[in-house]
Write a sequence for this structure.
């Protein structure tokens, strides 16, 4: 039996002209009638493959120059005319194309191994995976997905088209303690719940704690990667993206359209302004202004941090 072609095979061969008409971008004239069968990485490129070129290092990695490239405008000039599909939003076009090649979803909406307690309000089009638990009082909106073994506590309100990843825990009481006489330690009840707006995605094994007197909020369209922790009373703004293993302590406020790298730590009551950028492993202990790009611990302007690191390295030489 011959080896399978590398890459993702499309459900049916597609003419580039048809793809460009459906998804936008511009084609070289010689590429209009080219038919592609698979979408492949640059290293596995071959004839009849479409290869996304989204960053400069992919240019030199292209294994077969006969492949067709889906390329961002900044890199288009590094390929000879004839087999280029140039798209300002090439990553978006790739995502749309790969959606057509995704495996079909199961017709079963609620797994027989899921547990949905009496008193939970689950819309008819919600999918609940194997071993997931939805406790009484939870509300889940239309077309949302609760993946296998996720746990949704009763104080959680979930909007439409939300995805809660496998093993995630949403709405468990947050980490709050009160110290009293004679060294007594009393857990602070966390009764504010969690509000999740439409089109949010929560990654596998992420945790979102319930608020104390008000809800922890995930605003419309924000995306959390795997193993992100959101503490009690936190608010994550619209369309903000958070990479894996980032943690937000209690009462943090994050603005809209923020990009947060992996393993970032944000201290309690810190604020992060709209459109800010936080490099991976940054440590935020105060206010980050809108549109700032920061790095390091404590997080400061990224260029300032890089200069400080360069001085430190010179001092060691």
């Amino acid at each position: 039996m011959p080896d399978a072609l590398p890459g993702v095979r499309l459900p049916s061969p597609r003419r580039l002209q048809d793809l460009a008409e459906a998804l936008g971008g511009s084609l070289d004239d010689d590429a209009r009638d080219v038919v592609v069968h698979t979408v492949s990485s640059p290293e596995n490129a071959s004839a009849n493959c479409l290869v996304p070129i989204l960053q400069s290092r992919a240019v030199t990695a292209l294994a077969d120059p006969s492949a067709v490239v889906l390329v961002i405008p900044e890199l288009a000039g590094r390929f000879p005319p004839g087999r280029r599909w140039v798209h300002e939003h090439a990553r978006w076009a790739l995502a749309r194309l790969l959606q057509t090649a995704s495996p079909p979803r199961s017709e079963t909406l609620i797994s027989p191994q899921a547990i949905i307690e009496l008193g939970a309000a689950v819309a008819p089009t919600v999918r609940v995976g194997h071993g997931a638990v939805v406790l009484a009082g939870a509300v889940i909106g239309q077309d949302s997905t609760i993946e296998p073994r996720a746990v949704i506590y009763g104080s959680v309100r979930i909007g439409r088209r939300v995805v809660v990843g496998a093993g995630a825990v949403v709405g468990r009481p947050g980490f709050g303690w009160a110290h009293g006489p004679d060294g007594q330690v009393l857990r602070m009840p966390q009764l504010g719940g969690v509000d999740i707006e439409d089109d949010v995605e929560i990654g596998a094994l992420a945790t979102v704690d319930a608020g104390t007197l008000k809800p922890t909020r995930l605003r419309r369209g924000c995306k959390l990667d795997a193993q992100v922790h959101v503490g009690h009373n936190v608010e994550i703004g619209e369309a903000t993206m958070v990479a894996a293993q980032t943690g937000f302590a209690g009462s943090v406020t994050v603005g809209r359209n923020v990009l947060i790298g992996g393993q970032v730590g944000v201290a309690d009551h810190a604020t992060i302004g709209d459109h800010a950028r936080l490099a991976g492993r940054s440590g935020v202990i105060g206010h980050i202004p809108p549109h700032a790009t920061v790095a390091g611990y404590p997080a400061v302007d990224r260029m300032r941090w890089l200069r400080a690191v360069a001085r430190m390295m010179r001092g060691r030489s």
User: Anything to note?
Assistant: Residues 168-304 form a domain with the UDP N-Acetylglucosamine Acyltransferase; domain 1 fold (CATH 2.160.10.10). The chain has two domains: 8-101, 168-304.
